[in-house]
Amino acid sequence: MLSYTGENRGDTFCSSQPLVSVVIPAFNASAYIGRTLRSAMRQTYAALEIIVVNDGSTDDTPKLVKNIAMSDSRIRLLSTPNSGVAAARNTGIEASSGRFVAFLDADDLWHPTKIEKQVNALTRLSFHWAAVYTLHYIINEDDEIICPSSSNVARGYIYARHLNVKYIGNGSALLVRRNAALSIGGFDRSYAAAGIGGCEDLDFELKLASRYFIEVVPERLVGYRKHPGSMSSDHLRMGKSALEVVRRSLAANPQLPRYAIGSAIDATQKYAFWEFQQARRTYLSLVMLRSILRSDPCFVVRLVLQKGLRRIQRCLGPGTSTANREDQPRMMRSKFDDQLAPSCLECPKETLRLRRRLMRLAAVDAKLKSTFLMRTNVQ
Q1: C-beta of residue 152 within 8 angstroms of C-beta of residue 47
Q2: Burial environment of residue 140 by CB neighbours within 10 A (0 to 12, 13 to 18, 19 or more)
Q3: CA–CA separation, 30 vs 106, rounded Å?
Q4: For 13-28, how does the pLDDT look when each residue is reduced to its tens digit (9 = 90+)?
Q5: How far apart are CA 379 and CA 363, in angstroms?
Q6: The pLDDT of residue 228
C-alpha cells in the first residue's frame, strides 16, 4: 500500500520554467540520502519537485527525509512496501507533475548545474528528442572522485551504438520527457522478480533509444557512487542482468542487421565476463570466454597483455596509471561537491578496433533513423 507525506505541489511554482520532477528511489539509504537530497536541493534550476520513494526501508531513511523536507517544501516522501528500484521509480513517475523527470539514486550526487544544462539542451529540440544524459565521475563513500567515466558520447538516434557502448552509464545521469517515459511503460519490474535486477536502467535507456532521439550534455555532472552495499557491487547479478536486458532488446528489434546484433552480443558477453570474473564465478567466466572467442579469437591475447600491463604498473607505483585512481593518496583526491568546476570533455580513448565498430554501427543507426523519420512523417 502506498502512503505519502506532503502534498503534490506541482502547480505551486511561480515560474515560467517547466517543472522537473526528481525521482529518488531509496532503500536503507540513511548513510547517503542527506547528501543526495542536498545535491538536488542546491540545483541552479529551481523549478523542481523532489519525490523520494521510500522502498520499504528498515533504517532511518524516512525519518531523515522528513526532517530535511521541513526546510524545503519541494520535497515529498512516498512510502511503499519493498518492491525494487524499478517499481520505486515507476511510483515516482506516476506521482510526478513535471514535464520532465530526472532520476537520482539515493547514494549519488549531482553537480549544481546538471538539471539547468539538461533542460536547456532538451527544450530547444522537438518532441522526438525524448531524453538527455550527462557524463559522470565514480566517487567513493566520502564523495571523493576515484576516476572519470568513459568520454564516449553520441547523440541523435543511437540505438545500435548504445547496445555496444552503453553511453549513459548509470541511473542518475538521465533526464527524460515524462510522456516518453510513460509511453515505453516505465521501468521493467520483471528483472527484480527474476532475481536479476541491476540493469533496469539499461533496459529503460534502450527502449527510449529505439523509439526516440537522445541528446547529451558532454560534461561530468554526476557523482556515481560505488561502495560495497551498492547494487553495482553485486557482480554476478549485474552480469546476468546485462545479458538478459540485451537479449530482450534484440528480440524486440528484429530490424537490426546481423552485424549490429553480433556486435551487441559480443560487447555484452565481454561485460558479463568481467563481472563474473570479479564475482569469482569461474564456470560462468569460462562459458562467456568460450562464446567470446568465436567472434573475437584475439580476446585472450589482449586479456593477457592487459593483465601483464597492470602488474607492471603496480610494480612501478601508483603514479604510472591514469585510468585507475584507487591508489591515489587521499590528500590528492578532489571532492565531488558544489565547488567542483564542470569538466570539459577530453578526447575518448578508442582503439582502432572500437573506432571501426562505431563507424559501422553509426551507419546502422543512420539507416534506422531514416526509417524512424519516415514512420513519424518528419522530413
Answers
A1: no
A2: middle
A3: 9
A4: 546 899 999 999 999 9
A5: 19
A6: 79
At 155 the three-state DSSP class reads coil
Under DSSP, is residue 200 helix (H, G, I), strand (E, B) or coil? Answer: helix
Dump the DSSP string for 269-322. HHHHHHHHHHTT-HHHHHHHHHHHHHH-TTHHHHHHHHHHHHHHHHHH-GGG-S
> Per-domain residue ranges for the chain?
3-232, 249-316+341-375
Output phi, psi for 335, to 5 deg.
-90, 145
In angstroms, the CA 343 to CA 345 distance is 6
Residues 278-314 pLDDT 10s: 999 999 999 999 999 988 888 877 777 776 666 666 6
Q: Which residues contact 171 (CB under 8 A, 6 or more apart)?
A: 85, 103, 105, 108, 201
Residue 37: partners with Cβ closer than 8 Å, 6 or more residues away: 24, 50, 52, 65, 68, 75
How many whole angstroms separate alpha carbon 140 and alpha carbon 10?
34
pTM beyond 0.90: the answer is no
The CATH number given to 3-232 is: 3.90.550.10
Cell of 227: 561502495
pLDDT, greater one: 287 or 326: 287
| CA atoms of 350 and 151, how far apart (whole Å) | 10
Q: What are the start-end ranges of the H helices in 83-199?
A: 85-95, 114-123, 159-165, 178-183, 190-193
Q: Considering only CA atoms, which of 55, 60, 65 is closest in space to residue 27? A: 55
For residue 80, pLDDT beyond 90? yes
Cell numbers at residue 190, please? 520483471
**Contact predicate 49/21, CB 8 Å:** yes
d(CA 126, CA 140): 38
